[in-house]
Specification:
By secondary structure, this protein is mainly α. The protein has 14 helices and no strands. The relative contact order is 0.23. This is Drug/metabolite DMT transporter permease.
Length: 327
């Protein structure tokens, strides 16, 4: 009996470790997506990443039969999932600079705070919303500090920076809100069905449609002032030849980004099923800081002290929410 219990504990610990690998992989996501967007443009880059990611998931994490999936979950959950992934991928590529893409990634990491607020609002538990507000204030202050740069907690400077290029910030916030809604309402709809491997191809199709439409209407979108120029002139007429002409390093970055995103979902799903969800949830609150650190390394950025402080505040806001909700 003791031997059997020991094996179960070891198995659970191993599964938890696999689940926590998702945090490491997702921390690499923003920096890698930015690098791909700089090589292939803000619309084509994400489309390539999610095409590769969808293939990887269908090979290594095949979905259960579609007949087992609740229709309500497929429609509502699928719509929210596609909107979130599309919004986040495009927002990073549309950032004016690499440094701004890191700011936008922190806006995305408001989703745990928004999730707690939303869950509290629909729970009807006494004082649930009041317990969620302090963490929300701390996390929001962290975003303001990061976006405001060296000016610190200055609403005016932060607002000016956002107004200079509002679309990626709006996409990131809308995506964060959509993911918080997804996290709160879909578990009861899913009835144990995980549609990630089904939703990824839908994200891919959406991104390709966006790329084709923008190529036809506007002749392509770079989305970054510091891009190297590769891929900006890609159009439907010369797309195949242009893609073939890209350096091997650019394609390797596409693969790495796809592995980071799709592999993260695969690891997280395995950890949820076989490991400790509570341990993984607590560890996930370090993601904003890890993501900022990884992006700084990948994009060769020297981030200011206020920016790092803002990232810590975003993570601290999520932790504060978790602690207060456990009371």
């Amino acid at each position: 009996m003791k031997l059997e219990l020991g094996k179960k504990r070891n198995s659970s610990a191993a599964a938890t470790a696999v689940g926590m690998m998702a945090i490491v992989l997702w921390s690499l996501m923003m920096g890698l997506v930015r690098l791909v967007s700089e090589s292939f443009s803000a619309t084509l880059g994400p489309a390539l990443i999610y095409t590769c990611g969808a293939i990887l998931l269908l090979i290594f994490r095949r979905p259960k039969p579609l007949s087992q999936a609740p229709r309500k979950y497929l429609l509502i959950g699928g719509g929210l999932f596609v909107f979130y992934e599309t919004s986040i991928a495009l927002s990073v590529g549309l950032a004016a600079t690499s440094a701004q893409s890191v700011e936008i990634s922190l806006v995305n990491y408001l989703w745990p705070t928004l999730m707690v607020l939303l869950a509290a609002a629909v729970s009807h538990r006494k004082h649930a919303v009041a317990y969620a507000i302090p963490g929300a204030i701390v996390a929001t202050a962290g975003v303001i500090v990061s976006v405001g740069g060296n000016s610190g907690l200055d609403w005016h400077v932060a607002a000016h920076n956002v107004a200079s290029n509002p679309l990626p910030y709006l996409l990131a916030f809308a995506g964060a809100f959509a993911w918080s809604v997804y996290a709160v309402i879909t578990p009861s709809m899913a009835k144990g069905y995980d549609g990630t491997s089904l939703f990824f191809p839908l994200v891919t199709c959406t991104l390709w449609v966006i790329h084709i439409v923008t190529s036809v209407v506007g002749g392509g979108t770079s989305g970054s002032d510091d891009a190297n120029g590769a891929g900006i002139s890609a159009t439907l007429g010369n797309l195949g030849g242009w893609i073939a002409a890209q350096p091997v390093s650019a394609w390797l970055t596409v693969v790495f980004a796809a592995v980071a995103i799709a592999g993260g979902y695969a690891c997280w799903g395995y950890g949820i099923l076989h490991g400790s969800m509570e341990t993984m949830a607590v560890a996930s609150y370090a993601t904003p800081v890890l993501s900022v650190g990884a992006s700084a390394l990948l994009l060769h950025l020297s981030l200011s002290l206020p920016f790092w402080f803002g990232a810590l505040l975003v993570a601290a806001g999520s932790v504060l929410n978790w602690l207060l909700q456990k009371r």
